[in-house]
C-alpha cells in the first residue's frame, strides 16, 4: 500500500493545530479518496491555510502552458490564491511578504521526474524564501511516477539556468520532490526548518503502473501516464515549430507538422534502434496551438517497454530524424520561452548548445549523447547522502 505525505498528514489530526500556514499545491494533490488537498484538510477538521499558492497552470490546473495565472480566490473555500506564474519573470519566485504572517509553508505538488517540469522550481524557490523568513517548510512527498532507479541525460550548463533548468539535474533525475529539496538544502546551506513527509510503501524501482493509484493530470497536457513517461523527450519539441500534439487528445504522444511524410519519418526512426518504443505513422489535426486547424503528418509514439525506454534520447533522436528527412518543415522556436529571450528554447531545455549546433551543422548528436553517462555518474554520486527511499539511483 502506498501512503503519500498528504495521507500521512491527514492521519495526524493535531499536526496543523495552532499553525498559520500557506499551501503551495494544485489540482493533482489528492487524498486517497481523491479529494483535493484543501478540501481533504477541511473534511478532516484540520486548520485551514491562510492562503493558497498556485504554480504554473494555476492552483486548479486550468491554464495552458506559458499562460499567466492571476491572483484570485478559491471558489470552494474563498481562500486567497497567490499566483507563482504571472505576467513577468519575477512572479515565479514567491515574494518574502507572502510569508510575513506565516510560520509554515506546506508544499504538495506532483512532480513528473523531469528537469523541465517547473513545479520543482516553484516549490524549492518558495521553500528557500520561506526558510529565510523563519517560516518552516513541510513537503508532502509523492512518488516519482517514472520511478526512482533510472537517471538519463546531461547536466545543464550554469549559464543556461532558467525556469525549465533551475537545478543541476539530468533531464530524467529519478528523485522525488522531497529528495530534490534535500539536495538543494545540501547545496545551498538552507536554514533549519525543512521537513519531508515521506511516501510510505514506495521504493525506487517502482513506476506509476506498480502503485495501484489513479493518475490525476498534474498539468493540462499530461492527461495520461504514458504522456508523462514520454515527456522528458517530447518536451524538446516545444523548442521547435513542430507540433508536440497540443490541441489533440494525445499531447506528448503525437509529433509532426504539415507536409511531413509519416512513413518516411517512421523508417528513419526505426533505423535509429531506440529501445522500449515504437512508432506509428499517422496524420492529425491540432485544434489549438501550433498548426491549429492544419493536417499534420507525423508519428504516434507508443511505449513497448517502460524499463528499457530512454525518453530523453528518444526526443533528441526524433528531432534529429525530422531535421534530416524534412529539413524544409523543420525550424527552431524563435519566440521567447519561459520568460527568456536571450537563449534559444532548445538550449534552455537541453541545458547545452550541442544539439542545436550539431543539427545546424548537418551532423548527428551522437558524440553528445555518448557524453551523458559521465554526468549521470557524477549526479548519482552527489545524491548518495540525500536519498530517502529504498533502492539504488543506479540505471
Structure description:
By secondary structure, the chain is an alpha/beta fold. The protein has 11 helices and 10 strands. It has helices spanning 5-11, 37-43, 119-132, 177-188, 225-234, 262-270, 311-325, 345-350, 354-360, 366-370, 372-382, and strands spanning 21-25, 51-54, 72-73, 80-83, 104-108, 136-140, 194-197, 254-257, 277-284, 296-303. A 7-stranded mixed beta sheet has the order 3-4-2-1-5-6-7, sandwiched between helices. Strands 8-10-9 form a 3-stranded antiparallel beta sheet. Strand 1 (21-25), helix 2 (37-43) and strand 2 (51-54) form a beta-alpha-beta unit. Helix 6 crosses helix 7 (311-325). It is globular and about 65 Å long. The mean pLDDT is 97.
Rg, Cα atoms, Å: 21 Å
Side by side, the strands of the main sheet go 3-4-2-1-5-6-7
Uncertain spans: none
How many runs of DSSP E, i.e. beta strands?
10
Distance between the termini: 25 Å
Order of helices and strands: HEHEEEEHEHEHEHEEHHHHH
Estimate the global geometry from the Cα principal axes: globular
Sheet-strand content, in percent, reads 5-15%
In percent, how helical is the residue content? 25-40%
Give a concise summary.
The protein is α/β, with parallel strands linked by helices. The chain is built from 11 helices and 10 strands. Helices cover 26% and strands 12% of the residues.
Labels describing this entry:
globular; seven-stranded mixed beta sheet; three-stranded antiparallel beta sheet; alpha/beta; 11 helices
Amino acid at each position: 500500500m502506498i501512503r503519500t505525505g498528504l495521507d500521512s498528514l491527514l492521519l495526524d489530526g493535531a499536526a496543523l493545530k495552532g499553525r498559520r500556514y500557506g499551501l503551495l499545491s494544485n489540482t493533482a494533490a489528492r487524498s486517497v479518496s481523491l479529494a483535493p488537498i484543501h478540501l481533504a484538510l477541511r473534511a478532516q477538521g484540520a486548520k485551514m491555510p491562510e492562503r493558497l499558492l498556485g504554480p504554473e497552470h494555476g492552483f486548479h490546473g486550468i491554464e495552458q502552458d506559458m499562460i499567466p495565472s492571476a491572483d484570485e480566490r478559491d471558489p470552494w473555500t474563498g481562500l486567497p490564491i497567490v499566483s507563482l506564474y504571472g505576467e513577468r519573470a519575477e512572479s515565479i519566485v514567491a515574494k518574502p511578504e507572502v510569508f510575513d504572517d506565516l510560520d509554515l509553508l506546506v508544499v504538495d505538488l506532483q512532480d513528473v521526474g523531469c528537469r523541465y517540469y517547473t513545479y520543482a522550481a516553484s516549490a524549492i524557490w518558495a521553500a528557500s524564501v520561506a526558510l529565510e523568513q523563519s517560516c518552516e517548510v513541510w513537503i508532502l512527498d509523492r512518488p516519482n511516477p517514472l520511478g526512482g532507479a533510472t537517471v538519463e541525460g546531461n547536466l545543464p550548463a550554469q549559464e543556461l539556468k532558467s525556469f525549465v533548468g533551475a537545478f543541476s539535474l539530468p533531464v530524467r533525475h529519478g528523485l522525488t520532490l522531497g529528495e530534490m529539496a534535500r539536495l538543494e538544502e545540501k547545496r545551498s546551506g538552507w536554514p533549519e526548518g525543512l521537513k519531508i513527509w515521506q511516501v510510505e510503501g514506495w521504493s525506487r524501482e517502482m513506476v506509476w503502473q506498480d502503485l495501484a493509484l489513479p493518475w490525476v493530470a498534474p498539468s493540462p497536457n499530461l492527461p495520461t501516464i504514458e504522456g508523462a513517461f514520454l515527456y522528458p523527450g517530447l518536451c524538446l519539441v516545444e523548442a521547435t515549430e513542430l507540433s508536440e500534439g497540443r490541441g489533440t487528445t494525445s499531447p506528448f504522444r503525437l509529433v509532426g507538422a504539415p507536409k511531413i511524410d509519416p512513413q518516411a519519418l517512421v523508417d528513419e526512426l526505426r533505423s535509429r534502434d531506440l529501445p522500449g518504443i515504437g512508432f506509428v505513422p499517422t496524420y492529425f489535426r491540432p485544434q489549438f496551438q501550433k498548426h491549429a486547424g492544419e493536417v499534420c503528418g507525423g508519428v504516434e509514439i507508443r511505449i513497448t517497454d517502460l524499463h528499457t525506454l530512454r525518453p530523453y534520447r528518444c526526443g533528441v533522436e526524433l528531432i534529429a530524424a525530422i531535421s534530416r528527412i524534412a529539413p524544409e518543415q523543420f525550424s527552431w522556436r524563435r519566440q521567447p520561452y519561459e520568460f527568456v529571450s536571450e537563449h534559444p528554447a532548445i538550449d534552455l531545455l537541453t541545458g547545452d548548445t550541442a544539439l542545436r549546433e550539431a543539427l545546424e551543422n548537418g551532423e548527428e548528436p551522437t558524440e553528445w549523447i555518448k557524453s551523458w553517462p559521465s554526468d549521470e555518474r557524477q549526479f548519482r554520486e552527489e545524491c548518495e547522502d540525500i536519498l530517502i527511499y529504498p533502492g539504488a539511483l543506479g540505471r
